[in-house]
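Lab notebook, bench 4. We co-purified these components, and the gel suggests they stay together. Before we commit to crystallization screens, I want a quick structural picture of the whole thing.
Request: model the full complex, all chains together.
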Amino acid sequence: MHGFHGRLLHVDLNTRKSSWRDLEESRLRAFLGGIGLGTSLLYEYAPPGVEPFSPANPLIFASAPLVGTGLTTTAKFAVVTKSPLTGFIADSLSSSHFALELKRVGLDAIVITGRASSMVYVFIENQKVEIREAEYLRGKAPGETERLIQSELAVPAARVAAVGLAGENRVRFATISNEGRHAGRGGVGAVMGSKNVKAIALCGDREISVADSMGVAAIAESLRRKSLGSLTEKYRSIGTVANLAVFNSLGTLPTRNFQQSTFDHAENLSGETLTENSFSRRHGCASCTIQCERLFKSAAGEEQRLEYETLFALGPLCGIKDPDVVLQAARLCDLHGLDTISTGGTLAWAMECSDNGLLPEDRNVRLRFGEPEGFLSAISAVAERKGVGDLLAEGSRRAALKIGGESSYWAMHVKGLEMPGYEPRSLKTMALGLAVSPRGACHNRSGAYEADFSGAVDRLRADPARGSLVAAAEDFAAVLDSLIVCKFLRKCFTDFYSESAELLGKVTGWNCSGDELRRIGERIHTLKKLFNVREGWRTEDDWLPERLLKEALPTGVARGVSLTTEELREMIQGYYRARGWDKEGNVPDEKRRELKLI
Amino acid sequence: MDGDRSLTHASAVILSGGKSSRMGSPKALLLFDGEPLVVHVARALKRLFAEVVVVAAPGQELPPLPATLARDAVSHQGPVGGIYYGLQAAAGDYCFVTSCDVPFLSARLISYLLSQISDYDVVVPYWQERFQPLCAVYRKSVAPLLKEQLDRGELRPIFLYEKVRTRKVTEAEIRRFDPEGSSFFNMNSPEDYQAALALWEKNKQGFPLTCTVELFGVPRLLAKTKAVSLSLRQEATLSDVFSALAERLPVLSGRVINSESASLFSGYACNLNGLDFVRNPAAKINPGDRIFILAADAGG
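Here is the predicted assembly.
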């Protein structure tokens, strides 16, 4: 088999035993790797109705066919489990050397079930699997954990993915971190922590076989060249933080818990200002020519990585205008292993509750929009689950249900996952994408905003015809996330499906067409939906927070723009029609048969 | 004027040592738009080139210049002499050479001429059945041949074109960038001078439409400014905005704006007034419009 090893490792922490099984080529061809393979394994390994923190909930690490082939931006892996935040699928991606090492240990996937009786880490060295004592790592930050494990093993080349304090304490939006990057959304780190697993360490030397190495090398060179052109210049020159000033000018920058879509201090926080005043260093994932990562220097002289989503969530969303406070907050999130979007979203909810006298008193954490002190204290309190932090560690949806009153109105989430930095009222295609996404409010698994920013549609107007655009964007992302290719390379393809099919063919030896890949995308997405349906999804879960449907935007170029309940309902119906689903959003048997999902 | 500062190997050379006999007074010092003509031309070229060299006759008096000053070793050897001394003084591997009496140079044409030099020694426009040696690009390596011409008394540049790899730029090509050939408008008599002043004033008054271009991301960092105001003709289109912007901020040409087609490169997009993403360069612009130039990949 080329491109895959055809092998899966199952680690059962209850028995501390490991077993290997072969993965059939037909399954890999049907779901590829990454998110697709992870979803397929989740459906198989998760007992229906399993509690996310139950030992039986599988935590799945999945590799992909393009990983390790030298193709730019492909050093990525997926982490898939049942989310403790949403109760539905959590499918996260992360990148860099851990991804390459996962391939080198000769595996396409690792499935971890059970719970260790004490804190452990799992060390995999080719065929050898060890479950090792890790009590001494309790409370350590992911970066420090990585260094300590490398030192203990005396294997400096070992690659480590770890949880921080937040994961250990089952903060429902904890991440799994490797080399400063995170499998960030949906609380995969909390599931790992619930299993008493501090880290996974990998070291391998297995070769990666491709069917046509010359053909792959030629495509790799072509993509490398394209990745250095104007299509990616934004990422290479400024990074994703470039979005902030643009979004503010377009009236799509969520501010003060979505009370408005422009921020008076946006210039302070803009990527351009940060680049001019605080830029420290450019960095990137392994095997990547784009190198989008930007490190900025705080007033204390510490380097901190910053992305747009982190900048928006820890800045305008919480009314924070000082870039140095945002850098400090981002640093705390990284140290504790917290998803920055859900952290910002939950704190913004708490600030609004506080404004309305609904937040429980905590004399150590005073949360108010724009006030740095309480904001920074709250982040650590969340990771420690201390005081009001224990409530906030549940995420905005659960926290609102606990304190009651009107507070659910201010919880800005879809299916329990806090909203990313795209204002749905002024990005109507994105509004639909966020409402129907199986992962919850997610900007990565569909990228529906692309239609809004393209000029092909009127972004301020709702239209049921957007359903087909959202479905297409979801299928596209499913393929991208399962091959895996970074979304920042997406514009470098002229015809993504046919070019990717050719590339996949050269890696695997399969005679693959663009249409087959397109169908794979639909299959993967549909299986995510089927998993959610099995776990209790209801039609009303495909919806947006009430605020977005009741309040018109008060500021900026989109002032007065709203989204009504009826408009959203019609767009969702348009989406279900485009998908071939019934009016309630269920997948008919006929569609399942068509996609070979029965 | 538009241009490309990434062409760091290019310099500009302005010949100012002519006799000005028909004009009756030194052309370089004629007042134009409130400043001496040579300063006006040098300032315009300075927006395009890292280095501008003005070649003057021995002893010729000139005002303070935004340029490097070089002198002919021997005066009045015609354009061949000026080009030779200019190439000798310039640091660039190749030079755009012009004279000090051309106030209507088209930056888009200059950019195009520079873009053609890679396989040639000389790039020279051919306009109305005549070579235009003082609106041309010369590789520095032709200097020894010019010296030989001077020694032989061959004072016409055309002799050089027969000896080296010369790219003759046709009238059709020129019209794509400078439809009226205004780059070749020079002043030899007081009547020419008056006509040039009148044309300059007319052009200034002919811009009734004002709009603002706001820059985001890479364009902002390159231009070191957030916004510029542009004056355009009535009925202006997005293409006109891009041309005028490239002229105002030459650093955007070749990176963000494709000056040849007056459009944005594929990595960039345009939004009108924060509302509509516009892809058609023929889209009309209205007075007061705010035009955002940003990465095509918004989001991510």
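Chain A has three domains: 7-203, 218-412, 426-497+530-544+564-594. Worth comparing against the SEC data before the next meeting. The first strand of chain A starts at residue 7 and ends at 12.
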